[in-house]
């Protein structure tokens, strides 16, 4: 049987660019004729995805799978941690909820998952020619390394060579490279075949003396300097929200505001709106930034009850109601749909929602994870559900938003969400709804007409086509700036007996 060669991408810190460079390697190997699969043993993220089999996984491995030209498979991300508080996460293992654990409990527990992680990795290794493994955070977290399952612990388990990625855009790149390598055990450092400096702006000649010195100091070669790329692909980490636009771009005609909830999840739902030529999409973190948007989106959240309390205490709950009264339309997605209602009940505790619609949500133990097809008005749409709540229309008078016709590939017939009587509010459990261009364009044109503007066609290019172009652009940049011949040669030296 075939055994795939592997390469692992680790970073000097979070948001160094590991996920994107791993996706680029996936596309390079695909273009070179190999069957390639991404892998990350443990992911911590509130952006997740539901596969065709109804399994939940991190979005980083989803866009890496897209770059590799294959369908997402939950084996690519066996462990997904979804923080619900600062001290606790929901542990999703092989696509299904395992249990909620606090930080110390999970730290003690995670080594018991290694045999199954290794087993699914071996399955992928037998089925493919190349595996691109992504690490998490930094391998220099010396307080965690004794029980590491995602950085050098994983590299050692599967005998993979490692590329270390350092982000020069944040500053201090040479210190981060030197410090990371200095804190590694000698046997781990020997596994690092090279360093990639990422997100460089300017003339590379200015770096040359520094590159020579850091190679001399560490004994590890610099195998590439990647330029700062303006890529339009999915972003998994909430760190990127700090760079998102917060003010209305007056060169655009439609103002769409997204409430930046403390426990916001799946902010990738909004990505397609940013592609439309008439849309200024902004994230509202402060009450003073809300103003009067044409459309207000209340996104998903990992902790609806906690975020309901936040909205009330911050004054945003009243401000959202005032915006709607003055004419803003509203779309609530998943947790945002739940927040539109009057009551949120969890066990013996109940908290008030925004009371924009006569809805009551009860939180249940079982998690719904489904990939669906549905009819919305005259549109066939695709999306996915991830929720643990059941929402009921107390009035019995609201129209449904969608008729679900397929669920995880099987025919079905059920209804999702609600639409207010005046069509100004939509609530739905369907993530990815804006990715359906015909439906979202109809919504945007309705906003235009309300403002006295004429309808436009907008961007009709499919999201898949647009992303595929970006992956090709990324791969070419890696060919131009990385020593890929060296990477191929080093990969062949590892993993023969693992």
Can you offer a commentary on this structure?
With 498 residues, this protein is an alpha/beta fold. Helix content is 29%, strand content 30%. The chain contains 14 helices and 26 strands.
Short summary:
Helix content is 29%, strand content 30%. The protein is of the alpha/beta class.
Task: Chart the SSEs and their pairings.
Elements: E1 5-11, H1 18-31, E2 36-39, E3 42-44, E4 48-50, E5 56-58, H2 59-68, E6 79-83, E7 88-93, E8 96-102, H3 103-109, H4 114-127, E9 130-134, H5 152-158, E10 162-167, H6 173-182, H7 186-189, E11 192-200, H8 208-218, E12 222-227, E13 254-259, E14 264-265, E15 279-284, E16 295-298, E17 300-301, H9 304-314, H10 316-325, E18 329-333, H11 335-339, E19 343-346, E20 349-352, E21 359-376, E22 379-393, E23 402-407, E24 410-416, E25 418-419, E26 425-428, H12 437-450, H13 463-481, H14 484-491
Parallel strand pairs: 1-9, 1-10, 2-9, 3-6, 10-11, 11-12, 13-15, 13-16, 16-18, 18-26, 19-21
Antiparallel strand pairs: 4-5, 6-7, 7-8, 14-17, 19-20, 21-22, 21-23, 23-24, 25-26
